[in-house]
Amino acid sequence: MKFWSKVFAIARKDTLSELRSREILSSVLMFALLVIVIYEFAFGGDPDTIKTVAPGMLWTTFVFAGMLSLNRAFIPEKEQGCLEGLMICPVSREAIYAGKAISSLLFMLIIEAIGLIAFTVLFNLPVISLPVITITVFTTIGFVAVGTLFSALSVNTKAREMVLPILFLPIVIPIIIGAVNATQAALASGSFSDVGSWLQIIIAFDVIFSVVSFLTFDFIVVE
Amino acid sequence: MKKITLAILGLVLMLVDLYLVFNWVPVLQNNDGTVNLEQKILYLMIPTAWLAMLAFVITAICGIAFLAKKNEKWDVFAQSSAEVGIVFTTLACAVGAIWAKPAWGVWWDFGTPRLTTTLILWFIFLAYLLVRGLASEAYRGAVFASVVAIIGLADIPLIILSTTLWGNVSTMHPKEIVFQGGLDPKQGMLVGISVTTFTILFVWLLLLIDSIKRDEIELKRLKELNQA
Question: Is the overall model pTM greater than 0.90, yes or no?
Answer without folding.
Answer: no
